[in-house]
């Protein structure tokens, strides 16, 4: 459906919350609410503070989280493209195994 409308679907790698804007927003909210914690804080206090913090969250913060993730994803995409170019055979005719031979050996193996 997305491709039919001119969009590509790109999945982010698992366990990379830094690529998910909602995770960055949630981290900000949790930090703000957590700073208000005292030994007398009740569950109802936390719920109220969460609602208040979300209500007061500036749109610019959300936008910056989206832009930050977009920037990281674009960098990763460019890196993937450059790695695909690196998969081309070397111009000198050597194989990639020959070109990297010894690059993973430890000093004791030399």
TrEMBL record:
Question: Which Gene3D superfamilies would you find in this protein's record?
Answer: Ribonuclease H-like superfamily/Ribonuclease H
Q: Where is this region: Disordered?
A: 81-110
- InterPro entries from the xrefs? RNaseH_sf (IPR036397)
Any one Gene Ontology molecular-function term assigned to this protein's record: nucleic acid binding
Biased amino acid composition, Low complexity: 91-110
- The protein's superkingdom reads Eukaryota
List the PANTHER family hit by this protein, alphabetically.
Answer: DUF4371 DOMAIN-CONTAINING PROTEIN (PTHR33939:SF1), PROTEIN CBG22215 (PTHR33939)
What is the official name of this protein in its record? Answer: Tc1-like transposase DDE domain-containing protein
- Which organism is the protein's source? Aphanomyces invadans
């Amino acid at each position: 459906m997305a491709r039919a409308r001119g969009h590509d679907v790109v999945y982010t790698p698992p366990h990379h919350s830094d690529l998910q804007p909602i995770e960055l927003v949630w981290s900000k909210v949790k930090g703000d609410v957590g700073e208000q914690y005292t030994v007398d804080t009740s569950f109802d206090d936390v719920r109220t503070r969460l609602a208040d913090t979300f209500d007061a969250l500036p749109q610019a913060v959300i936008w910056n989280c989206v832009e930050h993730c977009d920037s990281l994803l674009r960098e990763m995409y460019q890196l993937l493209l450059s790695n695909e170019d690196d998969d081309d055979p070397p111009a000198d005719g050597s194989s990639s195994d020959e070109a990297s031979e010894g690059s993973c050996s430890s000093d004791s193996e030399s």
